[in-house]
Specification:
Elements: H1 3-6, H2 8-20, E1 26-27, H3 28-35, H4 39-51, E2 55-62, E3 65-72, H5 74-97
């Protein structure tokens, strides 16, 4: 289990970024809407994931307004896939118990 990804909001963030990876980065406002987070909460969790090397944040300005975009890294993709496999194993074990 990846303790960085396992936190529920970070798992949602990683799932969104993993799903969007072929379409390019996700803007902060779009990601916020997808995962149902507040600005501060999302910013905090993005910082943790960026610190782990799982995503890259790019900041620029569009029409004089700041824009933050997030992109999953290759390391993040690998970590997310491994975490999903771990969750599948947990579910498989639970199915045998029930």
């Amino acid at each position: 289990m990846d303790v960085v990804i396992h936190q529920p909001l970070r798992l949602k963030i990683m799932a969104a970024l993993y799903s969007a990876r072929s379409n390019g980065p996700l803007e902060f406002t779009r990601l916020k809407a997808l995962v149902g987070a507040t600005d501060g909460n999302l910013g905090s969790h993005l910082g943790v994931l960026e610190g782990a090397g799982y995503l890259r944040l790019e900041k620029d300005f569009v029409n004089k307004k700041p824009r933050t975009q997030a992109t999953i890294t290759r390391e993040g993709e690998k970590a997310f896939r491994q975490h999903v496999e771990h969750l599948k194993e947990v579910i498989a074990v639970a199915e045998h118990i029930i």
